[in-house]
Amino acid sequence: MNKKASKIIGICVLPFLVFFIFFFLADGFGFHTIPIILSQSMIPTTLGLAMACVMPAGLMDFSPGARMIFGAIVGGVMGNSFGIIGFVLGSLIGAMVGSLAISLLYRYLKIPSMVVSLGVVLVMEALSDRFATLFTGGATVQIPAMISNLGNYPKNVLITLVACLIFFYMSYKTKLGCLINATGNDEAMLKNMGVNVESVKFKAFVLSGLFCFFAAMLQICYSGTVQALTNMSTMTMVFKPMMGVLIAMQLVKIYDNMPLMIFIGELVIQTVFNGFIAMGWTDNIQNIVLGVFLILVLGFSENTARIAEYRRKSNVRRAARAVV
Amino acid sequence: MSEEKLMLKVEHMYKNFGITKALQDVSFGVRQGQILGLIGENGSGKSTVTSIIAALQSADSGTMYLEGEEYKPKNSVEAIEKGICMILQEKGTFDLLTVAKNIFVGKEELFVKHGFLDVKAMNREAQKALDAIHAENIRAEMPLAALNFEDRKLVEVARAMYSNPKILVVDETTTALNRNGRDILYEIMKEMKENDKSVIFISHDLDEIMSVCDTVTILRDGVYIDTIEKSDYAAPVLRKLMVGREVSDNYYRTDKESCKNPEVVLKMDHVSCKDVKDVSFELHKGEILGFGGLGDCGMHILGNVAFGLTDPDLGKVTAGDGTVIKDAHVAMQKKIAYISKNRDQETLMVSCSIKDNVCLASYDKIAKGPFVFKKDEEKFIEEHSKGLEIKMQNTDQYVMELSGGNKQKVALAKWLGFGADIFILDCPTRGIDIGVKSNIYQLMIELRKQGKSIIMISEEMAEVIGMSDRVIILKEGRISGEFKREEGVTELVLIDYMV
Questions:
Q1: Per mean pLDDT, which range of A125-134, B248-257, B373-382 is the poorest?
Q2: Shared-domain flag, residues B309 and B341
Q3: Is residue B248 situated within a structural domain?
Q4: How many domains does chain A have?
Q5: Domain C-terminal end among B209, B243, B277
Q6: Cβ–Cβ contact A142 with B under 8 A
Q7: Residue B276 C-alpha, separation from nearest chain A C-alpha, in angstroms
Q8: What's the CA gap between A301 and A312, in Å, rounded?
Q9: Minimum distance, in Å, between the CA of residue B273 and any CA atom of chain A
Q10: Domain assignment present for A275
Q11: Model confidence pLDDT, tens digit, residues A53-101
Q12: Residues of B in contact with A178 (CB under 8 A)
């Protein structure tokens, strides 16, 4: 087996390893949970892809959740009136409105991306609420089963796969993908090379909107309804995807395929959460363990060089003692 | 200089940074098939004028002509399109990209077919660019982070040469390259000259300038001073033109006696670490101990180990009182100072002010209780940078805006203010002009007289011999020779121990 294949297999084994830990620990956690875990991983994966468009460029964005909800609400409203085409177009338009807003605000007002994204979260949440109330009389939008079937397992996996393929193409097979990574690496140097860095960041935000669109479709199809959230509640939706992206950013050092690594990262997170639920753990305990898990994963991956150096030193010292 | 053969002409160029006049009415030209050396002290305006030529910044006023036509590039892309490429003194690569993507950054559209980036074609073309400069050992598909500093510089050279420039600007790049890298660059410059193209070459090494360049243009304090043809080269004349005063050929120590003080202030005991193998030595009070060898002999890691930044695999470093130097905190408690060869990354905070850098190690002295007052900081800086003559607008200026020599002065001011007793100076005069070099040597002599001890690690043998009480030569990580000053050792003798 060549080195590349063994690296991929090594990484792909990770979610299975986590799965089997809970398989033996938790009653009721079995192979039947696999489709559930897979389905639950789809929305965080697509949201993770949205975040991974901007994070490598050194930008921080808390708004994908708000953009996804707005996209889902617009898609739901239009789907009720114009069927599947209306649903798809509505989700796309809704998701892109927020993305264009954040792109333009960041580009022309020169405000830090995190601050802009918080502003966009507030505005998009309010807009979602107003939009839903205007067309349905309440904060919840429901879609017919014919449309929500689009997001049923395994179609949701296919939608996510399409999103992953687009991300892979954009990230590895286009000029923009190269420049997004280079921007995060050294913005000033890239400017000196005549690259319009502001334009790169603008496009990165716009691109993230495309993945919010996929997430929006999956979100409303998951239960057939979507509720407009306020008081920055949509921000909590980005934490799980963010964890998956952080794990992926470490895994790509071993094998460079960001969408696959994001998917694996999200799968691991979802498996862990489902395992906790099967064990009857409360939300608080789940969050504590998840936080510790995240610290351990990052702590290990960030310190691989130090660990290797420590092992090398230990071997040298052991050999020296043996000579004495 | 015949007008018709001029490749590039710069006329009446001015550039100010705040109150600093970086360029004042600078005019000069570069002929076709000419290697033009640009020399001057740190802060003389060499990098400023060349970065304007390469369109990395713009001039306040002045005109440039490229092959007889007015040349007004809007950005570096246009400059490259018009045939002007620059290899920078500082790092110019992206660690997170592959070698190929580094070579073609900003030019990715060359490999886009039907909307797809053809990474394999990019890798193939990048490998051709690397092979063309005889850097075959670097593979295009490798992540750049896997390369060492010298090879990364060669990637920049490959990037510059791929666009087949008419004029190549080489800004103090050779100091970052090893012997092989330098030879590659010299060969490229020679080929450009043979093909009727031009090179503007900046270096502080006068011997290198005189051997490589056809003509030398001298700048001083942002003013054009003179242009000297190869037939008229004379090192003392060039030095005088650069500095504006006579600079002696021999600015090293004149005494022939080594330090006789038996008091040991630092001891390295059978240290092995990475490239270093079983190294032991003692540093005495008031001694300058020089370390020499080839670039990869392990001497640079010794400085790191002595300051506690690198934990040795075997052996230990102890201060005079027997305290083991296990980390930099302990080293500083024992009044040890360290200036790394990699000054910008390991010694200075370049994106902070001069004030922050100088005061950083000494806030315990400056602070009054929990408070730090600006006037105390200013007073502290004035006191400890007095003799160093740092060229700056004010102490709030960012260190990144300073020239190499002035950055080194800031690093020295930090440790002088700290009150260090032991100075570990790794390549203290790297990339520094002869004026500042001379100042640093005088400072070292003065510190020695005050009873301070210095470990000087250097790749310049003349400097090691000229300044040290004792010279230790390293070869492949081991001590291969040790010489006292009174033995009158020569460079030829040392080279025998190095290779």
A1: B248-257
A2: yes
A3: no
A4: 2
A5: B243
A6: no
A7: 13
A8: 18
A9: 9
A10: no
A11: 998 888 888 999 999 999 999 999 999 999 999 999 999 999 999 899 9
A12: 97, 101, 105, 108, 117
CB B343 within 8 A of CB B407: yes
Query: pLDDT for B51-89, tens place per residue?
Result: 999 998 899 999 999 998 999 998 888 898 899 999 876
A98: in domain: yes
pLDDT at B250 over 70: no
The reported pLDDT for the residue numbered B1 is 46
One-letter amino acid identity for B365? K
Chain A segment 46-105 residues within 8 A of B by beta carbon are 56
- Interchain CB distance below 8 Å, B119 and A172: yes
Segments forming the whole domain that contains residue A298: 282-324
Same domain, A67 and A190: yes
Q: Do residues B318 and B182 both lie within one domain?
A: no
Given pLDDT bands bounded at 50, 70 and 90, which one contains residue B246? Answer: low
Q: What is the ipTM of this complex?
A: 0.74
DSSP string, B56-97: SS--SEEEEEETTEE---SSHHHHHHTTEEEE-SS----TTS
- For every residue of B3-36, DSSP letters joined together read GGGEEEEEEEEEEEETTEEEEEEEEEEEETT-EE
Give tens-digit pLDDT for B25-43. 999 999 999 999 999 876 7
Burial of A262 from C-beta contacts in 10 A (0-12 / 13-18 / 19+) = buried
Q: How confident is the model at residue B274 (pLDDT cuts 50, 70, 90)?
A: confident
Cis peptide before B165 (omega within 30 of 0): no
Judge if B354 and B310 occupy the same domain: yes
Return the residue of B nearest to A311 by Cα: B313
Q: Are B47 and B403 in contact (CB under 8 A)?
A: yes
pLDDT score for A223: 85
Shared domain for B364 and B274, answered yes or no, is yes
Residue B216 — φ and ψ, nearest 5°?
A: -125, 130
Please tell me whether residues B13 and B132 are part of one structural domain: yes
- B488 shares a domain with B359: yes
**Would you state the pLDDT for residue B291?**
95
Instruction: Give me the mean pLDDT over the B386-404 stretch.
Output: 84
Residues B59 and B23 in one domain: yes
d(CA B432, CA B445): 18
Structure tokens at A93: 């338009």
pLDDT attached to residue A286: 79
Distance CA B439, CA B49 (A): 26
